[in-house]
Amino acid sequence: MYQILTDSCCDLPYTLLEEIKVDFISMYVEVNGTEMADDLGRNFKIDEFYQKIKDGAMPTTSQVNVGRYVEFFRSYAEKNIPVLYICFSSGLSGSYQSAMQAVEILKEDLPEAEVLVVDSLAASGGEGLMVYEAAQKQQAGMSLQELYEWLEENKLTYHHWVTVDDLHHLQRGGRISKTSAAIGGLMNIKPIITVDVEGKLQNVEKIRGRKKALQLVADKISEATTDPANQTIFITTSADQVGAEEVKRHLEESIQPKEVRIFPLGTTISSHTGLGCIAVFTRGEKRN
């Protein structure tokens, strides 16, 4: 048997990852001068983190370095357990490149180590949905190589549609200008964001008003979902449970998906989005 691995940018609770037998490596978040592991709620409580942002904290994040990846992979290689690592998008972080370097270094010591790395080209619940479905396929009997090839062939079928409420965090991250953030705040403009074929964020539309933005995100996911009766949809949110429930209701009324699950947006991703982000994820045709 092989082990599926991922990282904390998948934004699935650690309890769910334990349930589906997936291990993860943490990104690190620094808030108010203290660095903490994004451990998906095991010790770093997400509600307390949201409160720090609400109180004015501006967290920063750091990716996994090569040395930590080497030790993460080594812990399985030394037990002769093959691994499949589903990694945060290379379009948003250097983590994928670090993971690939770590595999090369590990094989200098353990040439028989079997470590396959998938650049998910996804983030948050998009990466999480990929991990969740990969675990299901593993349990159904798919081999390591079969699953690796399936993920490489199908990773662009995972769709992301996102809206944010706090333009200040987008401006700080360089996604929009300071002027655009100021004007957008005054005019109640809500950006609509997706993830493109390179795994990068793209601002695709600007909607005036939160309610209309949530409706558009729900509509985009409805359009993208090709087999709703058999599709689980994930929603992640940074402290807007009411908005997330509203999107869930829209989806259940419009396409009746198999299941819609809501999770907290993790500390790494919400450090860049601020509070009030709602992101929705499904599978459909390959994004283009």
UniProtKB/TrEMBL annotation:
SUPFAM superfamilies reported for this sequence: DAK1/DegV-like
Organism encoding this protein: Enterococcus devriesei
GO molecular function ontology, one term from the record: lipid binding
Short name of any one Pfam family annotated for the protein: DegV
Role this protein plays: May bind long-chain fatty acids, such as palmitate, and may play a role in lipid transport or fatty acid metabolism.
Keyword set, alphabetical order: Lipid-binding
InterPro entries found in the cross-reference section: DegV, DegV_C, DegV_domain_contain
Protein name: DegV family EDD domain-containing protein
Bilayer-spanning residue ranges: none
